């Protein structure tokens, strides 16, 4: 079982883990056993066309939660930790709280790119780069940074209090500039591995 | 000077105040003196085509602030109060803090409609109605409500602390269901009136 490939199909990208090497790429036929999870039916079809034997891990995932309709990628990231706040910053930003292995709940915000797009669509005046976080912003850049990244930070603190923060997803590095947290690029894959190790072959 | 019309041109709508009657409508030729402010050049042209004598109040507005590039509608709303937090929930949500007549700073978030659009564009799974605010959301509706309206509430508290909250703009009523605050539909117009009363004719 050593030689396998993990695929996490997101709304926007295929995330692939092959021998600890993480990549985001279009999908091909892999030579190894493929385990995957998916939140996107169309992209899942593409994977299965090229890898008909790929195994969907979703039915094997058990989470201690009262949350209805938790995305499978969130489930895996939650599985990877016992205590703390999981922030997955991709197309959306999801924030989930885990205490003693139990998932207490979580929320969904637009992703960083989504915020930027929203600002641009509202007015070209708001088409500015993000800058540093200020409590009392004094110009448009500071104002939109506070109103997007600042709002994400606000909700992380609101949900997680003083809990440890784990940042994953494409914008994890960016968010880590604004909040104390550990960037764990492979958090979802770590959860998928836990599921695989509990499978009976 | 009693018989005049106030027009606040936003990014999306013309807001008109005529004898204390507030309306949002397409613009026409008014019989009375028109005073206006505008954050949208194109819509401003339409107003001036039909009302060539309309007076732009922007040059006459003086605000005590260090903020660079404050939108004229925000300036007017700020002028209308001496202490508190002004939340203008329109295409964007702006949150501004005023203390003893001085503007301390403010931020800009996507408007409610913008959040909804962003969620729908990320995934059709997120195309849900808003519901009540929960600290630990337990389903998708609660998760996106917390991640948008909850984030707005979080930032209002972060900026304003215990200060009085004034809600204005098209989504003021909606927000008032989620936060203690006074809905003042005509806040921007109140500021415009203050400017007019200080004009020398």
Structural notes for this entry:
With 201 residues, the first copy, chain A, is α/β, with parallel strands linked by helices. Chain A has 7 helices and 10 strands. In chain A, helix 2 (72-79) crosses helix 7. The longest helix of chain A has 12 residues, at 149-160. The mean pLDDT of chain A is 94. At the A-B interface, strand 7, strand 8, helix 3, helix 4 and helix 5 of A face strand 7, strand 8, helix 3, helix 4 and helix 5 of B.
Quickly list its features:
homodimer; 201 residues; alpha/beta; five-stranded mixed beta sheet; 32% helix
Let me know the largest β-sheet of chain A. Answer: 5 strands, mixed
Oligomer: homodimer
Task: Choose one word for the global shape of chain A.
Answer: globular
Tell me the number of strands of chain A.
10
Helix segment tally of chain A: 7
Q: List low-confidence stretches of chain A.
A: none
Beta-strand level of the residues of chain A, as a percent range? Answer: 25-35%
- Kindly state the mean pLDDT of chain A as a whole number? 94
Order of helices and strands of chain A: EEEEHEHEEEHHHEHEH
Rg of chain A, alpha carbons: 18 Å
Strand order of the largest sheet of chain A: 3-2-1-4-5
Structural class based on helices, strands and sheet pairing of chain A: alpha/beta
Largest interface between protein chains, with number of residues from each side: A-B, 52 and 52 residues
Q: Helix amount of chain A, in percent?
A: 25-40%
Distance between the termini of chain A: 10 Å
